[in-house]
Amino acid sequence: MGVMRIGHASIKVMDMAAAVKHYTEVLGMKVTMEDKSGNVYLKCWDEWDRYSIILTPSDQAGLNHVAYKVEKDSDLNDLKQRIEAYGVKVTELAEGALPATGRMLQFKLPSGHEMRLFAQKEFVGTEVGSTNPDPWPDNLTGAGAHWVDHVLLMCELNPETGVNTVAENTEFLCKALDFYLVEQVMVGPGGVIQAATWLARTSTPHDIAFVGAPKSGFHHVSFFLDSWHDILKAADIMAKKKVKIDVAPTRHGITRGETIYFFDPSGNRNETFAGLGYLSQPDRPVTTWTEDKLWTGIFYHTGDAVPTFTDVYT
Ligand code: M3P
Ligand code: FE
């Protein structure tokens, strides 16, 4: 099967206490581990592996790496070969390089972002367990996010020099890691420049997305909620807790997701995302958004450009 789903995102934060308060009280995650270096590990209630977010102390915001979980340890051997055959250097990190996690493949995407693959992480179970489970646990806090859903990475794109790491990342993930392309934005004369892509391994509309920008960076990590009503309630919680909201509840044309964007105290963008949108399948036709409808794809209701949404990232 190869890659199954997003495993975790490792995020840099400037004020650890404020960050932990945000990810626990606003998103509803729980701290499951801390290490000697001051890194804090958290999970959502509906996840069964030990952690899905690592907060690392830093003097700036941003993404350290994003990790995806593969089904079997032997997948790591197969994928290592395929990634190297594609021309990308792979470093193997031994079991324990991250606590509670097996060996990892570490490599850089063409955009410069660090990605890791692992097959094993300590199983702790969801908060409702797996025997006659309740649909949700008691004492949920904040938005009560189910799980980390996806990341969106800003990738260097310069039509003048022809550098397009959105297209390079997309080809690499499809050819070496068997992701499939679900949606794309095509811009420029004749619509030949692939300026943004949404790719999946699961049957959700995306497990990762890439958007072209002058400089590579981290746009957001997204947390899954059940419904539009949960999105509304999450926004209420953010207002009560004075969280800086970037984009109030609305709907994406792309992925059909129901969304809020907001910032953690260090300025890393988060998203709460609801709705399956549609069943994503490898044989599904790729949805294409044209340049004139780009902002309808991003914010379906108004279709208005919100430059800060694409210009501000860590
Ligand atoms: C999503 C999503 C941008 C579009 C973002 C879309 C940054 O976050 O989950 O579909 O242009
Ligand atoms: Fe998103």
| Content of β-strand | 35-45%
Distance between the termini: 33 Å
**Helicity level:** 10-25%
Q: Would you give the CATH topology of the largest domain?
A: 2,3-Dihydroxybiphenyl 1,2-Dioxygenase, domain 1
Mean pLDDT: 97
Task: Spell out which ligands are present.
Answer: (2E,4E)-2-hydroxy-6-oxohepta-2,4-dienoic acid, fe (iii) ion
Backbone CA Rg: 19 Å
Low-confidence parts: none
Largest sheet: 10 strands, mixed
Shape: globular
> Under the CATH scheme, which class of the largest domain?
Alpha Beta
Assembly context of the chains: single chain
Order of helices and strands: EHEEEEHEEEEEHEEEEHEEEEHH
Give an overview of the whole structure.
- This protein has 314 residues and is α+β, with helices and mostly antiparallel strands.
- The protein folds into two domains: 3-118, 2,3-Dihydroxybiphenyl 1,2-Dioxygenase, domain 1 (Roll), CATH 3.10.180; 147-311, 2,3-Dihydroxybiphenyl 1,2-Dioxygenase, domain 1 (Roll), CATH 3.10.180.10.
- The chain is built from six helices and 18 strands.
- It has helices at residues 16-26, 73-86, 165-177, 228-240, 294-298, 307-311; strands spanning 3-13, 30-34, 40-43, 53-57, 62-70, 91-93, 104-108, 114-118, 148-158, 163-164, 180-187, 193-200, 208-213, 217-225, 245-251, 258-263, 269-274, 287-290.
- Strands 9, 10, 11, 12, 13, 14, 15, 16, 17 and 18 form a ten-stranded mixed β-sheet that branches. Strands 2-3-4-1-5-8-7-6 form an eight-stranded mixed β-sheet.
- A hairpin with a 5-residue loop joins strand 11 and strand 12.
- Residues 150, 152, 220, 222, 271, 273 line the site of fe (iii) ion (FE).
